[in-house]
Design goal:
3-stranded antiparallel sheet; Rossmann fold; binds flavin mononucleotide; disordered N terminus; alpha/beta; 6-stranded parallel sheet
């Protein structure tokens, strides 16, 4: 079919094609890309990230897990959405393998206006004053740099009743509906 048309991207999932007075919305054929950036000391965040990946991949998204110690700000040039999946250590710090990445973002202050992200944070409420500070610090920094969060920041509690893997599945299902609604609806 020939359209004497122009197309504008409103969301990476949807393309609106204006043809004279008619407007069509169609689902993109290319699945959404999602990068899960992991900060962890003892592997719990890795387990959560695997569960999140499973849920999102089932919606048709292309999902990759990246360890933060291999990253710098250039990761945000990738297409698609991002998930920060990080625990908290020390006195409310990000884990060791997230330190250089976090400090680099803070120092370089790249403009991240195009970035959309979610946060799955891990912590333990016995650390009352610094509960889930790792995820919180990333959330605040990304917001300062112009990025926009999708959905609520998850605060998993290692002293709670739900293990991180189960919490990750539940959170990822909700997040998928917000971040890739068409794919989730088609499930
Ligand atoms: C030495 C140590 C320090 C911790 N400090 C904090 C903290 O300040 N705030 C918090 O919410 N959780 C804290 N935690 C709890 C961890 O964030 C939590 O157990 C998490 O699930 C670990 O995830 P990981 O295995 O991916 O690192 C600490 C744990 C340890 C062992």
């Amino acid at each position: 079919m020939h359209y004497n048309a122009f197309s504008i991207e409103i969301d990476s999932n949807m393309q609106y094609i204006s043809s004279h007075s008619q407007v069509y919305a169609r689902e993109r054929r290319v699945p959404q890309q999602i990068s899960i950036l992991v900060g962890s000391m003892t592997g719990t965040a890795d387990l959560a990230a695997e569960e999140i990946k499973g849920v999102l991949a089932a919606t048709g998204a292309q999902v990759e897990i990246l360890q933060m110690d291999r990253l710098d700000a250039s990761v945000f040039a990738r297409p698609g959405r991002f998930i920060i999946c990080t625990s908290t250590y020390g006195q409310g710090d990000v884990p060791d393998n997230a330190r250089a990445f976090f400090d680099g973002l803070q120092r370089e202050r790249p403009g991240l206006g195009q970035v959309r992200y979610g946060v799955f944070g891990l912590g333990d409420s016995t650390y009352f004053d610094t509960f889930n500070n790792g995820g919180k610090q990333f959330d605040e920094l990304l917001t300062e740099l112009g990025a926009r969060r999708i959905g609520q920041r998850m605060e998993h509690n290692a002293s709670g009743d739900v293990v991180a893997e189960d919490a990750a599945v539940a959170w990822a299902k909700e997040w998928a509906e917000l971040a890739c609604p068409l794919a989730a609806a088609a499930e």
